[in-house]
Write a structure and sequence with these properties.
Layout lengths: L1 H14 L7 E3 L1 H9 L5 E7 L4 H16 L3 E7 L6 H10 L5 E5 L8 H4 L9 E6 L4 E5 L7 H8 L2
Parallel strand pairs: 1-4, 2-3, 3-4
Antiparallel strand pairs: 2-5, 5-6
């Protein structure tokens, strides 16, 4: 009986520390994040659950968001919107805490250039925006440990 009670208590405490869930959005929500004047540096990462390099770098964004004041991390998932439950289950398994949106825009050609004119469409891709200075950096590849901090410093 004691083991059952201990298991139930452990299960209840685990459930209260769950990861975020993704919200399905249209591109105008992403565009608002990119353009809204704020004191925080915006770090916007485009990724998918099926993209191995994307999944590999997710812990870098989680660490950045948790440990860096003045930086706001938004993860933009590019799986299909009807796969929201799969995305949320993935986020739960990986303990993703950063704000995550699932972009419901299947015609990539209508919005990719609005993120950055140099973007060829590959992921992972990361946009770093400082609306106070007007500086921004865009990277269309997997980032290595320490690179995010360097990119953020370059837009200060």
């Amino acid at each position: 009986m004691k083991k059952i009670v201990a298991f139930l208590l452990l299960s209840a405490s685990y459930c209260s520390v769950q990861a975020q869930t993704a919200t399905v959005v249209k591109f105008d929500r992403i565009e608002k994040i990119i353009k809204t004047q704020t004191d925080e540096v915006q770090v916007i990462n485009f990724w998918a659950t099926w993209c191995a390099p994307c999944v590999k770098e997710l812990p870098l964004f989680e660490k950045l968001g948790a440990e860096t004041p003045g930086v706001k991390v938004t993860l933009v998932n590019l799986d299909f919107a009807d796969k929201i439950e799969k995305v949320n289950a993935f986020m739960n398994r990986k303990s993703i805490k950063s704000e995550t949106v699932l972009l419901d825009e299947i015609d990539y050609n209508t919005w990719i250039d609005k993120v950055d004119a140099s973007w060829q469409g590959a992921i992972p891709a990361t946009l770093i925006v400082n609306t106070r200075t007007g500086r921004r950096k865009f990277v269309e590849r997997e980032l290595a440990d320490g690179e995010l901090q360097q990119l953020i410093a370059s837009v200060q």
